[in-house]
Design a protein that fits this description.
mainly alpha, elongated, Arc Repressor Mutant, subunit A, 2 domains, Tetracycline Repressor, domain 2, 9 helices
């Protein structure tokens, strides 16, 4: 990814965090980036494409961090799942995704192109979580069991993204409980 694209995306991210969906305009991104509007539009023809690129960036960063997460072979399935869920929940608490996703979801309610980008994002995230759960699960785990586990984990992650600041239980305990549920689905 070019430096200019990274800069534009960084400026868009900051605007979303500071001013919300209403404050995100292509002109404002251009001003923040110190560029002409036409230069920003060279890279991102529309705001929808810009938001799609932000979502892709989240997914790429998430995939990189998940790839770096190693689940030791000598861990039990439940311990691997606990390690994985703790990592995911902790990442949500310490990243910008919670703020930015709320804004992108708000835009998606009225914008079908952004809604399609979100759907694409979730399809990719679903596959990524499936692979990670497959690594943690026992060797004899069936595909339908993995599908069920992802079907629990994915909406939980997204809900947690919105509600984590109001949950009165430690991330460690919550990840243990979630791992226990996933373990039962995968056995």
């Amino acid at each position: 990814m070019s430096h200019k694209i990274e800069h534009i995306l960084s400026c868009a991210m900051n605007i979303l965090k500071e001013s919300g969906a209403q404050g995100l305009t292509m002109r404002r991104v251009a001003d923040s980036a110190g560029m002409r509007l036409s230069n920003v539009q060279y890279y991102f023809k529309t705001k929808e494409l810009l938001l799609g690129a932000l979502l892709d960036g989240f997914l790429v960063d998430y995939a990189k961090s998940m790839h770096l997460l190693s689940l030791p072979d000598d861990y039990s399935t439940e311990k691997k799942l606990c390690h994985l869920t703790f990592y995911i929940l902790n990442d949500i608490e310490n990243s910008d995704c919670a703020v930015v996703f709320k804004e992108i979801w708000a835009i998606a309610v009225r914008n079908n192109l952004v809604k399609e980008s979100i759907n694409t994002y979730y399809n990719k995230l679903y596959k990524m979580l499936y692979k990670e759960l497959e690594k943690a699960a026992a060797n004899n785990c069936q595909p339908q069991q993995l599908d069920k586990a992802v079907a629990i984990l994915l909406p939980f992650i997204e809900g947690y993204c919105i509600t984590f600041s109001n949950i009165r239980i430690s991330t460690k305990i919550l990840s243990e409980q979630l791992a226990n549920i996933l373990c039962k689905l995968l056995q």
